[in-house]
Amino acid sequence: MARARMLEIIRYLVAGAVNTAFGFGIYAALVWLGLDRYLAQAIGYVLGTAFNYVTYSRGVFAGSAPAKLRFVLSYLGNYIVNLLVLRLASHYLADPYAAGAATTVLVVVLNYIVLKRWVFRPSAS
After folding, report:
1. Helix, strand, or coil here: 122?
2. Which residues pair with 64 in a beta bridge?
3. CB 26, CB 44: distance < 8 Å
4. What residue ranges in 13-125 does DSSP mark as E strands?
5. Burial call 64-93: b when 16+ CB within 10 Å, e when fewer
6. At residue 125, does pLDDT exceed 70?
7. pLDDT band at 65, cuts 50/70/90?
8. C-alpha torsion angle, residues 22, 24, 28, 34 (rounded to 10)
9. What pLDDT does residue 33 have?
10. Is residue 119 within 8 Å of 74, Cβ to Cβ?
11. Domain residues of the chain, as ranges?
12. What are phi and psi of 33, to 5 degrees?
């Protein structure tokens, strides 16, 4: 694997960790403030998606053409795939944490491929 691609993947994983902390932080803060957990999750997901766009477009796939609509569509698809894979994994793995971990690994890889090949295409400049 080329050095540039390896560095991009490392930046993607680091940004993903920061994005996860941000999204969960929003959720946790809203719950702490007394908001219903489902509303807090929805708000956290929307704000987290916007934050993720910034970190991925500027920190991981810098120099790519703007792709806000493709990014939102990819995240909607990612959410649906996540649910479907979790259901499938739960059929084979009784432990919900193991099923969630297996789902996360697969979805992280799939998300990178979608972001790299469909969302953040090279700029035409």
Report:
1. strand
2. 122
3. yes
4. none
5. beebeebbeebbeebeebbeebbeebbeeb
6. no
7. confident
8. 100
9. 95
10. yes
11. 1-62, 66-125
12. -80, -5
User: Please, what's the b/e burial string for 45-56 (b: 16 or more CB within 10 A of its CB; e: otherwise)?
Assistant: eebbbebbbebb
The one-character DSSP state at 87 is: H
Between the CA atoms of 8, 47, 70 and 90, what dihedral angle is there, to the nearest 10 degrees?
A: 80
Q: What is the pLDDT of residues 71-100, one digit of tens each?
A: 999 999 988 998 898 889 889 988 888 888
pLDDT exceeds cutoff 80 at 39: yes
pLDDT > 70 in the chain, percent: 97
Rama region for 65: left / alpha / beta (φ>0; ψ in -120 to 50; rest): beta
Q: Report the SS3 class of residue 64.
A: strand
Count, residues in the chain:
125
Distance in angstroms between the alpha carbons of the first and the last residue of the chain: 26
